[in-house]
Amino acid sequence: MQIRILLFLLCTYFIGSAQKKDITQTLYETYEKYQEKSLDKRRIKHYQLQPLLKRLETVSKFKVTTVGHSIEGRELSLISLGQGKTQVFLWSQMHGNEPTATQAIFDILNFFTSPDFQSEKQEILENVSLHFLPMLNPDGAERFQRRNVLGVDINRDALRLQSPESKTLKKVRDSLNADFGFNLHDQSTYYNAERTNKPATISYLAPAYNYEKDINESRGDAMKIIVFMNKIIQQYAPGQVGRYNDDFEPRAFGDNIQKWGTSTILIESGGFHNDIEKQEIRKLNYVSILSAIYSIATKNYKDFSLTDYEKIPENDRKLFDLKITNATYEINGKAYLLDLGINRLEVAIENSTDFWYSSRIIDQGDLSTYYGYETFDATGYTIKSGKTASGVVNGPVQLNEKDVLELLKSGITYVPCAAIPVPWGSSFPLPIHLIGENYVVPNFTLEVGVNPTFLLEKDGLVHFVVINGFLLDLNTEQQSKRLPFKNAIIYR
Predict the structure, then answer these.
(1) What's the domain range around 375?
(2) CB neighbours (10 Å) of residue 41?
(3) Could you tell me which of 84, 98, 167 has the C-alpha nearest to residue 131?
(4) Which CATH number is 105's domain given?
(5) What are residue 92's DSSP bridge partners?
């Protein structure tokens, strides 16, 4: 009888242990409760943060302080909470066009205002003091550009400290004497995990503090936290983590903050399939950063092995938005086989959180060692120039999806338009280019740097068309399964 009772108790214990969720899984599953819905686009501006900061000022556990100003006079705000001895400093958007972690910071702040996770939050706030500087380069954010208005890359201004934003970052780090620092960035979506076709959705670095790349206790702690965060990301984006080269850069803030004694963790948000606005990556930032903060509070990061840091694949840059392989291209009466690497380059719309694409051929030839978010095997298809419609439409509203499909099937990729409204700007939402009545379409060439617009023919029929870097299957049923089309271009 006693043995049976013991077995029952053991089974109950192990079943309960197996069913118990760790904090990371629960954070991931409940994320939408804390997501700051007002920041749903990447091109966030300084003014959008102000009501969120005002709201935090009314919550007793938060302290919101103006710690500096940008060149154009925008306030640099620091949000602090917690009473712990361990000082953790997180700063984001040092580069104005790198906002993913800025959004995640406000998700994290919402988490701390909620009534949930009481025991975990108590453990964090009793052991750790948290300090968030969510937008270090607001002038750059206003223009969605990397550098500040002085034209300086703040991340290369740690020695000269010419920019007021740089001085503020140094002053805050020094005043806190931060134990841990999270240096939060975005990287190109074209990075991949080394030797794989998977994007480097998140990349990490524990920066070196000298040319010898020595590992002291402070840098080693940063490496262990990265090992912990990598294990988290692998649950939700397996194989999609990269590691930056750790060559010492004496002008960089990350390297110097590591040198000044703060365990520094660089986090770069890259690409994720069908996540144009990086909202899934934002969620991964939220989950992994919060989990890392909890790990710092409990000190369980110390259980991880330094050797696992080097096992994270290095970043590579061999991804295209669209890769076309084995296409036939005829020139001077001879047929050649080509691969094409195509990227959709974003163009910001002034005074807007939106953008349009102006795509380019980035490379062509043998691209067998490269990868694509979307890859199309064009074996048996020949690249042909698109044609210009002979008639002139009175305005864009005269075109609909059905009309455009028929034009594409007949090989037409450009339509002259008599009246193109100025508010339309330079982009057109249907997959065909509009041109002014006097615009002359250049002779078709297939070369690096040109806009990728052409037909893919087989047996004299147009089966596929590329418009501004988007591949469209002219079988409408199949096209619905492909990536959504954003815009063609208006040439005036």
Answers:
(1) 333-491
(2) 17
(3) 84
(4) 3.40.630.10
(5) 184
